[in-house]
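lol ok so funny story. i was supposed to be doing the assay writeup but got distracted and ended up predicting the structure for this chain instead. priorities right. anyway since i did it might as well share w the group, maybe its usefull for someone
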Amino acid sequence: MKRTIVCITLFIVATGWTQAQTNAADNRSHLERARELCSKLTLEEKVRLMEHESPAIERLGIPQWNWWSEALHGVGRNGRATVFPITMGLASTFDDELVQKCFDVVSTEARAKYNIARKEGHMKIYECLSFWTPNINIFRDPRWGRGQETYGEDPYLTSKMGLAVVRGLQGEEGHRYLKLYACAKHFAVHSGPEWNRHSFDVENLPIRDLWETYLPAFKELTTTGKVREVMCAYQRLDGEPCCGNDRLLHQILRNEWGFDGLVTSDCWAVDDFWKPNRHGFSKTKEDAISHAVLSGTDVECGVTFHSLTDAIKAGKITEEKIDESLIRLLKGRYELGDLDDPSLVEWSTIKPDTIDCQTHKNMALEAARRSIVLLQNNKKTLPLKAETKILVIGDNAVDSVMQWGNYNGFPSHTTTILKGLQEIGKNVQFFAGVPMITAPDSPYSPNEAELQEKVAAADVIVFVGGITPRLEGEEMDVKFPGFKGGDRTSIELPDVQRQMLNRLHKMGKPVILVNCSGSAIAMAPEKKNCSAIIQAWYGGQCGGQAVAEVLFGKVNPSGKLPVTFYASTEQLPDFEDYRMQNRTYRYFKGEPLWHFGEGLSYTSFKLGKPVYTPGSVKINIKNQGKCDGEEVIQVYLHKEGDNDGPIKALRAFKRVSLKAGESKEVTIPFTYKNFEWWDVATNTMHPLAGNYVMTVGTDSKSGQKLNINFEP
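and the output, tada:
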């Protein structure tokens, strides 16, 4: 008899089948089933299920679960996976259809990994179906180290890309079960600094900036995209921590936007309410966790919610409020099929051989190709010929890990930039040892004789510089000049690279700068000293191949900047000032090095006269060059008489592919919703009547203008 019991237990563990799945054929709604299951739980069990690491409740057949998984640009921190370019690179594609396809790949690999873990009888961190992405915070300041995780500085572009991510992760409508849970983060008004995020308060933010810049992407993802999860941020907004902010979580998110999904805290953010030298908002742990739940935080990334039983005993919160949150969590697990028989969940058939398969690698390569931005190409230095004698310099040329970005997975193979060049070029040499950055007490001096000899033998120099994810990112301990806590205090290219590029320029050979970074680098001297400059970001596992294909002209570059590239740090306002005045292309009144939306091609395009009719913008575009190429048509608005509003704001875009000499008439949808504007009279955003200037072009600095009188 004992042997029979053991065998049954082993079968349950091995298959992941549980008592909770006896209701797999139940046709009741997920919400109804969640309510019933909640009613069977003890208070202690309920509380444990509200932590990100949720234990199994064996008596009810509820399996182990973990709400924390990562998929920033590929399944992260869970072994082998396809690694796409960082999200800033994906934003540079201005191609939301491509981004959705990329995240469909991500969700397929995530399901495959979940199916493996479930079959093996465990559900550890990073193995479940709740993925804390996309990061749709607005990248208001290039010093923020986590800006590489966002989709740039523009609310409209961020909204479009965020919607694509959600659709790719959660799956198309019409399925009984969602493919994954996506999570819009970090709600809200969060974009650095990293070094003081556990105590920082965004105070006196103009209401217009809140609704016009920081909230639109969250509204779009919750209302249109039906994202199932929202993560609240670390910092305070007007004195109240975001994970205990009734205005954000109740008034706006649930009441105004009708969000019925779950809210998770950022990791250990609730501890910041009460622990010393942080927010100083709550007196005790019990006060903090009660306030978080009452304000709308349903699940904690952390372990402090474990004390909710003590908070209930102290009368700070009721079990009924616990149930409200828990029912949302259980509903989520039903929506994902976690509490049902796997044979009824269509995603359970996804096999392990999909992970980092050739089809997915091809998608990563295509994304990397379209992410690269050609910033400068004096005297048509590019593309190079295969016979060109090339000298490659810079540690980033041989750094595969750099290309993975942060919150990354681990691909089966990564092509470095040097390897990519050597696979196409017939004469590619490398000068090793030029560091990314040096400490003040460690000056760099190259082997001058060797450098002179190699430069003399080359036709052109490819300097692969910039920075790395080991210098910028989340709350990091970096002790180099210009960096602090994961952020930057200076956006200039590190001095050791600047000096080397100046030296190379004086040697007389054309210098091509391949800049790798997660955000904008100030490159004013380099713009003068380099013949060509490309922005390669952190290109993922195929980034090296993509860079080489662009440099040799096998791929015509078509990426566009999703952020402004400023001329210097001096052009930036105070990092801790969240007002949008003089920030991003929408409000910046200075002259940047390169504008938002800018990016060159090896061919040339000519736009005809745009025509607006209610519902669309039509324009003819011709490829006037001798090679095939892709261009991104961009549509901007400015409201006449609105002196406090944006100089211009992106409201539509469309990527167009054209063969050499080909012309196309392009129709870009432009509905009344595209005229959403800040209404001073009501302090709201809505389609607002008035006179607008529409600019249609291929970047934010120029284009053809139309005067439009809009009446909703």
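The mean pLDDT is 95. The chain has three domains: 2-354, 370-587, 605-710.
back to the writeup now i swear
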